[in-house]
Amino acid sequence: MSSSAHEHPELGPPELLEVADGVFAYIQPDGSWYINNTGFVVGPTVTSIDACSTERRTRAYRDAIRSVTAAPLTTLINTHHHGDHTFGNSVLEAATIIGHENCRTELINTGLPRDTGIWDPVEWGSVTLAPPTLTFRDGVRLWSGDRPIEVTYVGRPAHTDNDSLVWLPEERVLFCGDLLFNGGTPFLLMGSVQGAIPVLTDVLGAFPAAVIVPGHGAPCDHGLIDTIVGYLRFVLATARAGIDAGLSPLEAARETDLGEYAGWLDAERIVGNLHRAYVDLDPTRGPLDVFAALGDMVTYNGGKPLSCYA
User: Fold this and answer.
1) CB atoms within 10 A of CB 23
2) φ, ψ for residue 263 (rounded to 5)?
3) How far apart are the C-alpha atoms of 21 and 158, rounded to whole Å?
4) pTM value?
5) Which ranges of the chain have pLDDT less than 70?
6) DSSP assignment of the chain, as one string?
7) Burial readout 245-255 (b: 16 or more C-beta within 10 A, e: otherwise)
8) What CATH architecture does domain 1-310 belong to?
9) Cβ neighbourhood burial of 208 (10 Å; 0-12, 13-18, 19+)
């Protein structure tokens, strides 16, 4: 059995990378629970792609933007509703927050951050609920001066039911939110393991990106897509074997050798992913109880809250 405990040296400072002219990726190590990536585009005004999880982290991100430009931050795009990408929305004080219509709904349903006992306690700071104020069903194009920014819903559940891609066609830079994790275990509990595979291969893979900025971990190229798809196929095969053996998702996870994926951060996500894969393969098992699945992840972790350094 693997657990969430991982070698955790002192976290280094976030890295600000100019991945194209006026396009920046903000990479927060070590990319584990609630430590995400963001990015921004500089024009007459600033457009941010996602916020951070806490007031402290989002203020540091805002300071990084100010180190580059004095232009006002007017627009914020949320790639999906999860709190590591949205709880800091209010701190950025953008005039317009853009997200898929399900992103707004899910963020409102999630409410303000709180400590649930699933993760180590987090100092969230002073944040208020700030869901998207401009929503779309399929996609929307906005402009940073003369530079187009295209936001596209991926069309089906994958990481969540509201994943959106942010594409800068002139620079060939793609911000893909948590459809990709670089060095961390993907997490599909609130989406679909089966659905994520065609989203990665047919949707994300179709963009001629020179640089892809994942939701966690270092920027990458298309090669990471095959790596993540390999993991998802492993999860589905493990789920099928578990169902055939009459095992619960937790029991199947405990009997699973993670093999080449054992070194990825937050390995306990195998439990949540199996809960989702069981329902993907046999919809009569639904609806999925997300909080029960999270509880099983804690059980898999020896009854200890999941490691969180946010």
Assistant:
1) 24
2) -85, -5
3) 31
4) 0.96
5) 1-10
6) ---S----PPPPPPEEEEEETTEEEEE-TT--TT---EEEEESSSEEEE---SSHHHHHHHHHHHHTT--S-EEEEE-SS--HHHHTTHHHHT-SEEEEEHHHHHHHHHH-S----SSB------S------SEEESSEEEEEETTEEEEEEE-SS-SSSSS-EEEEETTTTEEE-GGG-BSSB----TTS-HHHHHHIIIIIGGGS--SEEE-SBSS-B-THHHHHHHHHHHHHHHHHHHHHHTT--HHHHHHT---GGGTTSB-TTHHHHHHHHHHHHH-GGG-S--HHHHHHHHHHHTTTSPBP---
7) eebebbebbbe
8) 4-Layer Sandwich (3.60)
9) exposed
Query: What is the structure's pLDDT at 11?
Result: 85
Would you state the torsion angle of the CA atoms of residues 51, 57, 58, 59, taken in this order, to the nearest 10 degrees? -170
Rounded Cα distance between 306 and 33, Å, is: 8
Distance CA 293, CA 283 (A): 16
